[in-house]
Amino acid sequence: MTSGRVLPAASLPATAERFSELVEAFVNLRDPLVVAAFLRDLCTTNELDAMGQRLQVARLVDEAIPYQEISRRTGASTATVTRVAHWLHYGEGGYREVLKRGRK
User: Fold this and answer.
1) Cα 50–Cα 54–Cα 59 angle in degrees, nearest 5
2) 57 Cβ contact partners less than 8 Å away, ≥ 6 residues apart
3) Would you state the pLDDT for residue 25?
4) What is the pLDDT along the chain (104 residues), one digit of tens a residue?
5) H-helix or E-strand containing 75?
6) How many CA atoms lie within 13 A of 80 on its CB side?
7) Res 29: pLDDT
8) What sign results for the dihedral spanned by CA atoms 30, 34, 36, 40?
9) CB-based burial of residue 10 (10 Å sphere; 0-12 exposed, 13-18 middle, 19+ buried)?
10) Could you give the CA distance from residue 100 to residue 104 in angstroms, rounded to a whole number?
11) What is the structure's pLDDT at 16?
12) How far apart are the first and last CA of the chain?
């Protein structure tokens, strides 16, 4: 790991291939209703809730809300808040891009 970034899963070619296929599937979907249907088919209710919670946490971290308050508002553990904050600041930029696009 360098500067907080996780190295690519090059040692796991099957994982890398599955990830690429998943990204391609999302890229090809343009209609929000189709994206929603795909997510409902793909993920469990708990997985969807966890991902939605992480996005809420990222928004609040970006607003510089204290971690304990974020945990109280979202129900996320402080460990989850810390992990999301790490990825927001040192990840691949996905959270940052989603947050930026949501502000338009």
Assistant:
1) 150
2) 70, 74, 76, 80, 81, 84, 85
3) 95
4) 445 555 555 557 888 889 899 999 999 998 999 999 999 999 999 999 999 999 999 999 999 999 999 999 999 999 999 999 999 999 999 999 999 998 75
5) none
6) 18
7) 95
8) negative
9) exposed
10) 7
11) 85
12) 33
Q: Which burial class, exposed, middle or buried, applies to 91 when counting CB atoms under 10 A from its CB (0-12, 13-18, 19+)?
A: middle
Residue 92 tokens, joined: 């691949």
Q: Residue 2: its pLDDT value, please?
A: 45
Helix 94-102 vs helix 78-90: angle between axes, to the nearest 10 degrees? 90
Q: Which token pair is 55? A: 């996005």
Number of other CB atoms surrounding residue 45 within 10 Å: 8
Token pair in block for residue 87: 């990825």
